[in-house]
Write a structure and sequence with these properties.
Layout: H1 9-26, H2 35-62, E1 68-69, E2 72-73, H3 79-114
Antiparallel strand pairs: 1-2
């Protein structure tokens, strides 16, 4: 039987990841964009989404719900949905940060190659 509760954290995570992916895609479009840059951007967004999805699923499996004590249930049940969203967001942000830094370094290296600065 499929456990739909394991995917509930994506309702928390999904809209924000779409906004961040759009922001990444829209940033830097004033520069000359070729097919290599588009392919790189698509690859970074897809890798970031896969990393977010995978780490959220791993976090859901890793979190344990606390048992009912003598005073009732402790406040641990909500973390079964919050922690996967946090793990997914962290993985997404890490991949996007590496993608942005790499894109900046490649652009800087290419501009120095095309027009080296005079000493």
């Amino acid at each position: 039987m499929l456990n739909f509760m394991r995917y509930l954290s994506f309702l928390l995570l999904g809209p924000w990841l779409i906004v961040l992916a759009w922001a990444y895609w829209a940033t830097g479009k004033t520069f000359r964009v070729n097919w290599q840059r588009k392919a790189y951007d698509v690859a970074i967004v897809v890798i970031a989404l896969v990393a977010a999805f995978g780490s959220a699923l791993l976090a859901y499996d890793d979190i344990t719900v606390q048992s009912v004590g003598s005073f009732g249930r402790e406040s641990g049940g909500i973390w079964k949905q919050v922690m996967p969203a946090l793990y997914g967001y962290g993985a997404f942000a890490a991949v996007m940060l590496v993608g942005i830094v790499t894109r900046m370094l490649l652009r800087r290296r290419k501009s120095n190659f095309i027009a080296p600065q005079k000493s």
